[in-house]
# Entry
Amino acid sequence: MSAALVGKILWVAMVVGWYAIRYPFERRAKRRRVERTRRGRAETIRMLISLSGLGILPGLFVATGFPWFATYAPSPVQTALGLALMVVALVLFRLTHKALGKMWSVSLDIREKHELVTRGIYRHVRHPMYTAFWTMALAQALLLPNFVAGLAGLAGFGTLYFLRVGPEEAMMEETFGDAWRDYRRRTARLIPGIY
# Structure
């Protein structure tokens, strides 16, 4: 089996793993009332851009090989590194969902009786779910030997992240005030001790 085929299979496994982790939280979240939201046209566009980069373009490549002109032969080392990042991403993704529990939301929502989560992985990082998605996007870039489909995750999720993290932090500060400001001072945004 070629490294390219293994990479494609692993990418599909990563998407299935992502969905398996998220699905129960998504079902549970629908039962909790949203008090305040920042959903709207801009958020929908950000989500579609991210979905295009992390789902649609790579899915099209895996299913059809398109865009053919951007395909190259990967090394087994590249695929192995992609696998390692995939595992890290899914572990981080699971830890974030577990820590958030009932406070989880797919978008910029404040739920009824919302609490500021600072336990688990959130003790050290304010946005570990974004860290998980960045890691997933890097894994995709290594697993899919196509310059367009592989790198689309970094571009798509990067757009979502850079346009969303500011409004999200503003909403948290507005909701939790000094508790959020204190939490922000003692934690990193994505990577402990770095950023």
Remarks:
- The CA atoms of residues 69 and 146 lie 8 Å apart.
